[in-house]
Amino acid sequence: MPPQGNKLESSNQYIRNIFLKISTNSGNYKEIKSTSQHHTTPSRKKTLPIVASVLLLLVSFFTFAILGNMSLSPWGIHYGNNTLVTPNYTVESLTRDVQVKNIHSHNDYWRSEPFFEALTFGVISIEADVWHFPSGLEIETYTESTNSSSKDIKSFSNEEIYVGHSSVYLQPKRTLNNLYLDPIYNLLKDSNPKLTYENHSSASFQGEPPLHGVFYDFPDQTLYLWFDIKTASNDTYNGLKPLLKRFIDNNWLTSYDTSTKKLSPGPVTITLTGNLPTELVSSEEIRYVFLDAPLLNFNSTSNGKADLNSTALLSQVASGSLQSILGDESYKEALRSDFSPDQLAKIKDHVDTAHKYNLKTRIWGGVTWPNYVKLAQNKGYYSIGVDLLNTDDIAQFANSF
């Protein structure tokens, strides 16, 4: 079972343990040598300390030469942006005894191990910035010194969607499939095996949900998966749809049938934000993705408007920036202290209105430092019913409540 949170020894502690074992073995040898010298030849006296020293040198070299470019995490070993070890976990090994939490992992791909780290903390909402290049893309980078120069060309396929915060830092192997869709698909295959009786009829059991999600103790909990579209909306959505087919074929995506007006919950609920393909999604008879609704538009003065009804039918979550909701002056005040009663009431008005339209809520762009203000405001969000609490530090957040 993969370790969780701070249960994993750091890479430094791991290396110190290696040193300790070598030192201990050397010490044991000295003890044996002092009590049993007649069994130790002169050549062996010299050989074992030399071997220990060589091992120490090798470990030191490995440490300083490699760890500069390699991150050791509880969920795998990564060398730069290229995965060396592909995680192969089950739902049970990742999330058994994990309490689900109403946390939104903003920029989740920044984690030491995208997706898996969030799951081990019980995070139910994950966001990734996505890029699609219908004509492909090449990025050339140069390095130069007084003695030499080199050029590196990174190529991006039109059949993939890539994950990253900025176009110049994209990496060919950091695809949406590699970081998110493949791991999610494999976990859902694990948690939804085919069950049959000896007569080959399908087996089902009372009390069991028809489909299991990625949380072992909470099989009914959907995973909110967000794609923040950074490239052209329609092109990116058209590139995304083929990648979702395997999930649709297994009924693993929350969907909405426009003809029957029926919402069918699934293990994964996909929300698009950023550049929205509104027309394409609106025209679909069965929607397998939803659009991020503007929380700013949902308040008591606008409640009941027809456009809010149509917006809500395209969405599962409404989100907005704290600055847009409070206004510039009030926002500046909120950067240095906890929310005032008036500020909290204003935020709550938007949250309560969105809830009347059966939408969950998320607020982004809040305080990131100092920590005591950030945590106090997040507790305020929780107290008024914000559903997905936005954070870039899931470990701190998960342990602060």
From TrEMBL:
Bilayer-spanning residue ranges: 47-67
Keywords from the UniProt entry: Membrane, Transmembrane, Transmembrane helix
Domain of life: Eukaryota
InterPro entries per UniProt: HAT_RTT109-like, PLC-like_Pdiesterase_TIM-brl
Family classification: Belongs to the AIM6 family.
Stored PANTHER family: ALTERED INHERITANCE OF MITOCHONDRIA PROTEIN 6
Full protein name: Altered inheritance of mitochondria protein 6
